[in-house]
Amino acid sequence: MALYPLFADLEGRDVLVVGGGEVAARKIAALLKAGARVRLHARAILHPDVAAALAAGRIDRLGGDFDPAWLEMVWLVVAATDDTAFNAALAVEAGTRRRLINVVDDAALSTFQVPAVVDRSPLVIAISSGGVAPMLARRVREQMETLLDPALGPLAALFGRYRQRIRQALPDMGLRRRWFERLLDGRLDRAHAAGGAGQVENAFLDELERAGEWARHAAGGAVALLAAAAMPDLYTLRALRVLNEADAIVLSTGVARDAIEPARRDALHLQVPDAEADGLALEHALGGSRVVYVHAGTPAGLAACARLSAACHEAGIACRDVPSVAAGPV
Fold first, then answer.
1. How confident is the model at residue 327 (pLDDT cuts 50, 70, 90)?
2. Where in this chain does the record put each Sirohaem synthase dimerisation domain (predicted)?
């Protein structure tokens, strides 16, 4: 990864934009949305949106010839001109002063890139190709737009607004994570479709009111039995869900770690022989963890599944066999 991804807090901070055309107008609009104080230098104002922002006092215009001293006043610089020689000289001046600069359509001169964005504020997803394939980044953004429900924005805001109440209702971090996942699993989608952000908040508060009662029933562990797929992209949606919800993943010796690439990154990963897998998985489930036993489908692995299923039944632990690969031709 050549670029270091970050999100900049520009609220109330000065940013210099050079150029007055369509590209500059897009950059200015995004910067104003982020709360930046935009300072503009342009030989001519070519775009009506830039002219309107100037007339409304939303941006300040720096007149006369370009003065490199202006770079001392700003945090970031955006060069949106079609003057290649000027852009190159501006990049040098910015580098001398350790100011990050984005030269539009010139990754070599830029020290930061502006990504394609999926906006579900306060949830924001940024997609970058490092400046080498911006059309590809835009295509990925378009695909993400269709995948992410509009309810995610209001829901993310509610998580922040009621953070303290959530912690009080669910002091255990593991249960709190499960409660978040429960809400993110589509429980509030209908509320958003029915009444927008206001209805989402009503449904959210109802779920929060009942969080303590839910936690008393959800505190116990559970086990999922999963045969490893030959390739990670062959897993069923149900298999992907249990891998992403797991607190602990027990792998039999014959399963490559690549087989659980889609799994939750912070889950505990344990690799043991099949003969020990059932005891280890049960131990973690009895401690309240959601455990996935990933086996290779061998006779030893299936025997471990049978022992684990019987032990869970005796201990009162939920245990289910999850189809890993869809039946029939792919």
1. low
2. 151-208
Q: Using N-to-C axis directions, what is the helix angle for 22-33 and 48-55, rounded to 10°?
A: 40
Question: Tell me, what CATH number does 94's domain have?
Answer: 3.40.50.720
CA distance 119 to 308: 45
Distance CA 3, CA 19 (A): 25
- Give the residue from 196, 201, 167, 165 showing the smallest Cα distance to 183: 201
Q: Which helix (H) or strand (E) holds 125?
A: strand 123-127
Q: Is the pTM of this model over 0.85?
A: no
Query: Of the residues 124, 148, 172, which one is the last residue of a structural domain?
Result: 148
Q: Are residues 263 and 314 in the same domain?
A: yes
Place of tokens 């215009």: 61
Q: 157 lies in which domain range? A: 152-218
Going from the C-alpha of 283 to that of each of 145, 267, 278, 287, 288, the distances in angstroms are: 42, 16, 9, 6, 9
Rounded CA-CA distance 36/281 in Å is: 52
Region 140-149 average pLDDT: 88
Indicate if 54 and 110 belong to the same structural domain.
yes
177 pLDDT tier (thresholds 50, 70, 90): confident
Evaluate if residue 18 carries a pLDDT over 60.
Answer: yes
3-state DSSP assignment of residue 102: strand
